[in-house]
User: Fold this.
Amino acid sequence: MTALIVTESLFGNTLAIAEAIGSGIAEVRGRGSVRVLHASQAPAALPADVDLLVVGAPTHTLSMPNAGTRDNAARKGAPQPPGPGIREWIQTVRIPDGVGVATFDTSIHSRIQLGTAARAAARALRRRGAQASVGPSFWVTGMEGPLADGELARATGWGRTLAERVTAVR
Assistant:
C-alpha cells in the first residue's frame, strides 16, 4: 500500500516537512511506499493503492492559502506556485472509503492558535466525506521561514507514528 502526501509550499518550508513526514513513513513501510506531490500535480481520484493520505499547507490568515494570500507571498519573494493549491484540490478530490486521512501545517508559533491550515483542511476534507484527523503544526520562525530547530526530526517522528497506526489498523 502507498501513502500519498499532498502539499502546498510557497517558501519551501511545508515541502521540507512533507518530505520529512514521508521519510518517517518510509522507515516503517519501505522506500517505495510514499509519494509527495504538490497539489497541482495530485490526482482528483486517489489511486487504488493509496491507503494513507496526508495533506499539508502553510497557515495563511488562520486557514489554508488562497489566491490572495499566494499573491501576497509572491510579492514577498515566494515563487509563483505552479497551479491550484490545497484548497482547490480538496474541492475536487475523491477519497475512497477506508483511506486514512491526516492533515498538518506550518505556522508561526504562538501561545494561542486560533486557526490553522491543518484544521481548515481537515474540515474541508470531512465535508468531502473523508474521516480526516487534524495533525500537528510545525513551526517556522517567520513568514518565509526557516523552520524552527527540531521540526524536521519531529515531522519524521510523526510520519513514523502515522505509518504505524495505519498499518496496525489494516
The chain has a mean pLDDT of 93.
